[in-house]
Amino acid sequence: xxxxxxxxxxxxxxxxxxxxxxxxxxxxxxxxxxxxxxxxxxxxxxxxxxxxxxxxxxxxxxxxxxxxxxxxxxxxxxxxxxxxxxxxxxxxxxxxxxxxxxxxxxxxxxxxxxxxxxxxxxxxxxxxxxxxxxxx
Length: 136
Ligand SMILES: CC(C)(COP(=O)(O)OP(=O)(O)OC[C@H]1O[C@@H](n2cnc3c(N)ncnc32)[C@H](O)[C@@H]1OP(=O)(O)O)[C@@H](O)C(=O)NCCC(=O)NCCS
Known about the structure:
By secondary structure, the protein is of the alpha+beta class.
């Protein structure tokens, strides 16, 4: 858990607390982590919500980004989603997070709508972009 909290603290402007991770993992979770040697280097937090999968958080340790680990995790998630008899993945991403938006688009997600002022930002608030993917 500490590895996950460290990656989260280095990845998000308003990082999730340990409590938030624990609460989400108590629900029907299709979440997983990627380990290298003894430590966690990436995580993917996703839950079943009614008939959809909500991808709530995904992050890779900073020094290993851009090497395909994120795409590898999405491919695992797509398989898990199908095994859970789901076909739609939904997520929210900060409008300013261009790297993540491109990462999701490159992996087949489509931008669906905007949720105004959804996130706390450094100054004021920031929009969320809602993205969706139908798993083939
Ligand atoms: C979004 C994230 C999970 C992607 O993981 P990743 O392992 O870097 O993903 P991949 O290597 O599969 O693809 C990353 C894409 O980012 C870009 N990229 C390239 N080098 C990069 C680098 N050093 N750092 C970040 N992104 C890079 C490229 O567009 C790359 O796609 P390409 O190789 O096809 O050109 C990761 O950047 C991350 O942890 N970001 C911080 C947390 C975050 O914003 N999560 C999303 C919240 S909604």
